[in-house]
Amino acid sequence: MSNNRQPLVVNLKTAIQAKAWVAVFLYLCGKTTAMKKEIDPKESPRGRAFELWKTAGMPKVTIVKTFDVGRLIRVAKRSGMKTNMLMCWCIGQAASGIQEFYTLPAGGHLWLYDRLAVMTVVKTMNGDAHLCDIPFSADLRQFNEDYLRLTRQVNETNEDHLLGDDYMAIDTSALAECEIDGVVSVYSELFTNPFLAWGKYHQGLFKTTLPISFQFHHAQMDGFEAARFLNGLQGVIDRLNV
């Protein structure tokens, strides 16, 4: 598999415009490629939370929110785009504006990333389930092209497609066979990436709804940032347009 990603150079102008401390940190580090960097938690806004939660036996929190997905379903039907792809893009778009998504606690360390990916589960022709990381792009059409190409690749090769250290991956799982109220995944330090899961949407009389479970590591973000992300996700869905 070829890797045509170009090195990312962050200059002072970019750092100022980005507002988030992530961009400023990368600028101070000088030129950097698109890979993770270990950072001192004390020098980040997550320092206190990292110390409190890094050795907790159950460091994750799950929040369930019911979304109005009527617009997303209409856009999918009108455009022919996959519903799951649109949801994954909306998740990436909402997360891209929240700086906590660019850090990840793992192995007792705090890591900084400059790019996001959204992971989806692909059920292959063999009936197996494999993981597929999709690099997030704010360009919906580009993300759609990558989604279709990479999920097809996973389906044909029956092998995972993981982007490794280049991206902070937001894990997702769509259980579209049934309506569910919520999902709780493994509460373990072994799996620290944020995780969203949902089932089949409910077509009501006046609106179409979908409960989504959001699980996150408390060292990565607090409930305030998680709630802001979930509210932002609803906003992205409401403004979705092709």
What is the secondary structure topology, with strand pairs?
Elements: H1 12-18, H2 21-28, E1 37-39, H3 47-53, E2 60-68, H4 70-79, H5 83-96, E3 103-106, E4 109-112, E5 116-123, E6 129-135, H6 140-157, E7 168-174, E8 195-198, E9 202-203, E10 208-217, H7 223-238
Parallel strand pairs: 5-7, 7-8
Antiparallel strand pairs: 1-4, 2-10, 3-4, 5-6, 8-10, 9-10
Helix pairs in contact: 1-2, 5-7
**What is the molecular shape?**
globular
Low-pLDDT stretches are 1-33
CATH secondary-structure class: Alpha Beta
Let me know the number of strands: 10
Key descriptive features of the protein:
globular, 242 residues, seven-stranded mixed sheet, alpha+beta, three-stranded antiparallel sheet, 24% strand, Chloramphenicol Acetyltransferase, single chain
In short:
This protein is of the alpha+beta class and 242 residues long. It contains seven helices and ten strands.
Account of the 3D structure:
The chain is α+β, with helices and mostly antiparallel strands and 242 residues long. It has one domain (38-238): Chloramphenicol Acetyltransferase. It has helices at residues 12-18, 21-28, 47-53, 70-79, 83-96, 140-157, 223-238, and strands at 37-39, 60-68, 103-106, 109-112, 116-123, 129-135, 168-174, 195-198, 202-203, 208-217. Strands 2, 5, 6, 7, 8, 9 and 10 form a seven-stranded mixed beta sheet that branches. A three-stranded antiparallel beta sheet has the order 1-4-3, with no helix packed on it. Helix 1 runs antiparallel to helix 2 (21-28) and helix 5 packs across helix 7. The two termini are 30 Å apart.
